[in-house]
Amino acid sequence: MVTRDTPDRTASELIASIAGRVPLRNLHSQVLWQLGVAIVGGDYPEGSILPSDSELLARFAVSRTVLREALKTLAAKGMIEARARIGTRVLPRSRWNLFDSDVLSWHFETGPDVELLRSLAEIRIGVEVESAALAASRRSDAQAEALLAIAISMGEARTPEEFARTDLAFHRTVAEASGNPFMASVSALVELALTAAFTISSPVEDAALTAAAVKSHTRIARAIEAGDADEARAAMKAVITEGFGRAAGRMAEGKPRRK
Question: Do 108 and 192 form a contact (C-beta atoms < 8 A)?
């Protein structure tokens, strides 16, 4: 059994920082994080039975109430299931709620692979491309102005995290401008994708890439401002595809992840 120690800054905390949320550091969140990463990382494979409560209590040195709350949270995310006289079994990945920000963070914490990044890009294309098209017909003047301002401000970012935070603000504004509340519900996917970009590759590392990112996001903003749904779709798809290509290329080069 491999036991992972909680790092100074987990993926969940990094995503929370970029998203502007305050990360939790209580005992429940720590136990949940360690169990979640262990399950996603394969320390507890699909179909396996978790150690008994007494073993887990000894390992984490927490109260039974804290452990039970962590296990309940994992069950709610579709990752485990408790059965009488059998124990707590790890469910198949097909049952896991991959739209959950914690589950996504744990995948990222164990080391995202190209297939995970590709899947994220594909689901983003499936949702955000249409979100941009809807924004082109439903945006307010204020939202159109905000998108253009955010796109321009991306060029002022000095760190990958600043860039990711600005990028996230841009995509959130597009989702809000779409007028469809369900578009914002997939924000966890966008947050994870941007965090992956932060740790693998960022346009901030290259002035030409930064300029290209500003240009491509400005293209989306201009299309939405002009009410051109087709151009908004094309521009959004290009941004997502280019972001995936940049990260996948860096991973193919075998570059180490940013800490």
Answer: yes
SS3 state at 43? coil
Write out pLDDT tens, residues 50-84: 999 999 999 999 999 999 999 999 999 999 999 98
Q: Is the pTM higher than 0.85?
A: no
- The CATH 1.10.10.10 domain(s) of the chain lie at 11-95
pLDDT tens digits, one per residue of 137-160: 999 999 999 999 999 999 999 888
Answer whether CATH 2.40.50.140 is correct for domain 112-252: no
What's the chain's length in residues? 259
pLDDT above 70 for 19: no
b/e for 78-102, b at 16 or more Cβ within 10 A?
bbbeeeeeeebbbbeeeebebebbb
End-to-end CA distance of the chain: 25
Query: For 231, phi and psi rounded to 5 degrees?
Result: -65, -35
- Enumerate residues 6+ apart whose C-beta is below 8 A from 252: 114
236: CB partners within 8 A, 6+ apart: 128, 129, 131, 132, 174, 220
- As assigned by CATH, the class of the 11-95 domain is mainly alpha
Residue/partner pairs of 51-58 with CB below 8 Å, 24 or more apart = 52/87
